Amino acid sequence: MSPGAPQEGALGEGESARDEVLQPQQEREEAGEQEEDYGVEVVVEEEEEEEETPTHLPFAPSSELLDDVTTVDPSYTISLIRQLLPQGSIVAKEFSAKQGDPEEKGENSENGESAQLESKDPWEECGCILWDLAASKPQAELMMNNLVLEVLLANLHVTQSPRVKEICIGIMGNLACHESLVDAISMQNGLITMVVDQLFLDDSACLSETFRFLAAVLRSSASVSWAEALLPDEILSRVLWIVGNTLNSTLLEKSIEFLSTIIDNQDVTAILLQPLIKVGFVDHVISLLASEIEKISDESKFDRSASRDLIFHFMEELSATDSCLEVMSSSDQLIQVLDKIIKLPDKFEVSSYCASVVMILANLLADGKHIVPSLSHDLPFLEGLFDILPLVCDDNQGRNALWCILARLLAQAQGIDMNSSSLKQFVSLLLGKFTLIKDDLESHRVDKVDLSAEDTYLKHGISTSIFVQLSTICCIMERWIAEKSSLSEEEDPLTESTIENARKLLNYCQNYDM
Question: Band of the pLDDT at 513, cuts 50, 70, 90?
């Protein structure tokens, strides 16, 4: 199943595969007598019976969570690892020697314990339980001390099963969530190469777990060695191909989270960002964003609002990175995407993205000053920006970015000689948005004494943008009122109420006190 063209129902299959990871724990809780055969004592409080610990989250939960719910006998965990031993492998002999088992015990033990599990696939059952237990730091340490990495690598070498590969990588992903274990994981002979090779699989569940694992290790102290392993162009190009072609929402989210981790870690950024840009990183993400925006109005498409949120936040992150911003500011496609969103008459479907949209645009206008003249005279664009005001009123950074954009564009428009027709259009726009402007400003009046140092700094930035904006509005309104006052009613039969409204807006802007 190719991530670029998954078979029908591939998304559901990917989700159900991950749901199966939770199933072993649930079955153990519902059938306590079965655990006694493995030395497992389950202690569950009544209110927690309905809850399950996810086994595929990017971060392992606090160790107290699993310890409070389940007490696991170490011999049980070791028996699970034994179940995963590939028959006749070198690691099977090493494991038997470490445990003091007779060489043939691995196979005999497997037969006996498989009968107790009463499962069609005891390997998968045991693997899923280990995946779950690996979220606990004590259990993860126990596994590491009992050759779990060697066992998982041995399976990855011999198996052709996507499900087996997913479970192996998933267990390693949970192990890698424990910072104290990452160095040992990274030094395991052949492990880095094996994990990176999984990026060339065509199974979305395996790829999702691979990206989750890579994101975890790139956040760790061992990040540099992993970043260097990802350097070849063919690997980076493969990553971007997956991001741009997958229809699986989970895989898309995990791959974006992986790329975001590269941007977040300064050491990793220094190694991988320029090579990524070289193979088209920024253009790929812009194309992905454009594709997702096209799907907003298409009800036949899957709901990928969570994915769009992630992409917008990632684009915002890229726009704050100088080397990426340079590419973004010269992208006509990105400007067209932002223009389309801002001009949407009904912004309900994009309301959660609006803060990111204005943050991206503010960064673009600061770097790409060539964009400002054309946008400053695009009245539908300016109207759309004013309509975003109530959607970002609770986001200080988004609101600040929006006022910066408005100040920059209106100052540019006012600085260029306007003819009477253009002046009339701007006045009509400002009068129509007066209520939005006033509501935003009045709702953010605060007592300066109550502000923290950070809030004071942010408020100063917003205040500067608002001051520039209101000053520009005053200039436009004064000029227009002066023109109208010099005309007779026959020359311009404009109603007195419109002129009065213009004076109210002018008076408000002149007297507004932050």
Answer: confident
